[in-house]
Amino acid sequence: MSELSELYQAVILDHNKKPRNFHVLENANHTAEGFNPLCGDQLTLYLALEGDVVRDISFVGTGCAIWKASASMMTQALKGKSKPEAEALFNEFHQMVTGQLDEEEEPNQLGRLKIFAGVREFPVRVKCATLSWHTMHAALNQQEKVSTE
Amino acid sequence: MATIEQLIPIKPRPSDGWDVERIRKDFPVLRQTVNGKPLVYLDNAASSQVPVMVIERGAQYIEQEHSNIHRGVHYLSMKATTAYEGAREKIKRFINARESKECIFVRGATEGINLVMHGYGRKLIGAGDEIIISAMEHHANIVPWQMLCEEKNARLRVIPMNDAGELLLDEYDALLNERTKLVAVAHVSNALGTINPIKEMIERAHKYGVPVLIDGAQAVPHMPVDVQDLDCDFYAFSGHKMFAPTGSGVVYGKAALLEKMNPFQGGGDMIKSVTFEKTIYADLPNKFEAGTPAIASQIGLGAAVDYLSIIGREKAAAYEHELLVYATERLSAIEGVRIIGTAREKLGVLSFVIDDIHPHDIGTILDQGGIAIRAGHHCAQPVMKRFNVPATARASFAFYNTKEEIDTLAGAIEQVVEIFG
Question: What is the ipTM of this complex?
């Protein structure tokens, strides 16, 4: 079951158990809700933007391990990033999990997020991995609600 | 930990001589591997598999009888019409309707319920009226009534349930009153497996003169149903959950009610005459069957009824109960597994959660082992809310499943627990 162990790596399981930045952000100036009606994953994403820069970011919600770990690691990756940098990273992440980017061969800024490459072997789980990213994108652009359907 | 008797009463029913290996040969789809493992199909409550006999009957129509029904005077149209109406006759006997015209062919239980909502509800339910449903309904038996209530300014009332997943009949009694215009409840819960005491519930509603619609999608494939004995006013079910192709299904209605109702959709085949001034609708059942139906699928449904008669429904039901008891026993013995839905009367549906592991992660890991289960809210979000879980994993059984498959399931669940340790 190598594909399974590729998907459920220790780091992902750890973030599932102990999600980082998993709380309401009191000083947030951008928020958005994300919802995956297929699985019932749902989250609220909080952004504290200072000008163009993500000063702080957090989330709350319920969902599967892939969703939670992805949201948790996204919040870590985006702190201090500018809006265009965040969007660029979303784009690379999306391309990686949908099999359009070879994270080992092609240049990218994914870093530790490469751990989610295994998701591409599980097409029905791509939505779980990308929900928090879509929601972040909406928060940046001030849309209120996001659905992956 | 709860004992097995607390989780499910074990009823000694005879299933001796159930040759499951022989039965499995009738289902070609089961002969395949998934992710390198033999397919273990435990998602029967979502959709069941189709036996060769049904496939061949549908194929025979397409190869030798295909044409439109009810309108041609030519040979093929007569053949097709005979086969299609023959299927209706089989359904009539299968559910013991008084007349075959009381069996309206629809796309599935959802369409059947919507037909009653439009034909009966929109005509006969108005402002201030009340509709009673239950806390364990599938969205198909919630949303149409909500839409109606919104349109008519009527009120939706909900029968609550206890922690085992059993409806509270005293509360039901308290909800029934002279404003009640319809009761709509599931015969069997798709998320919990509970068999509701519908005969008693129908009797109580009838004391107020209130008609009752039963969502029988989960019941008809797995237990004998007699609509006259139940005295239900409407009974809807889907073909694809009873070993027939998708697109087939039935809503039974008492003739007198169906006569009173508005048609559902307008179009060809549901009319006697059409002018630009006035249309005269056809008699039952055609009044409710506008347009060309899923002829091959409905003929297949007729063949599925034959198949169930040949294998023996009572025996199949007894065997499925054995599987449920065995699975309940195996799964409840695994540390961290909690079974959702422990009603005294249950069919072969086993919903469960494991600690705080999300059901979708369970589903993915099981799929890698070739095991198909459903993970999610089962189109019953209020049920999930009632049990305070976002979703459950659900294994649901049919008479072609084996105890070995349940062992495979239990082994894979142990692996899930190990991974998430």
Answer: 0.88
